[in-house]
Design goal:
By secondary structure, the protein is mainly beta. The protein has strands at 3-7, 10-13, 18-25, 33-39, 46-52, 57-59, 67-71, 77-82, 91-98, 103-105, 109-114. Strands 2, 4, 5, 6, 9, 10 and 11 form a seven-stranded mixed beta sheet that branches. The protein is globular and about 40 Å long.
Length: 115
Amino acid sequence: QVQLVESGGGLVQAGGSLRVSCVVSGSIFSINVMGWYRQAPGKQRELVAHIVQGGSTNYADSVKGRFTISRGNAKNTVYLQMNSLKPEDTAAYYCHARTPWDDYWGQGTQVTVSS
């Protein structure tokens, strides 16, 4: 049973930092991409950042320079370091893993940035 579990969300003031984590468990093979998406109330789910095998990363323009995505050495953990947070970063953040056969999603962790 494949499971993606996010943690680290919470309430932070504008300008602060937060790190969210995602741990993948279960029988999952050949993960090509791991990433973070977010969805704010009334908005579509959007890609925040992703990292592929080999280490290449991609970021949404809105977070470039502020957020950093990284993977653990075991390749079953992904982190999103969020710095200089803004109220518009408030959203539920979802971990995502892609394989050649399936896509997997976590349940999300809420990040709320107060002004």
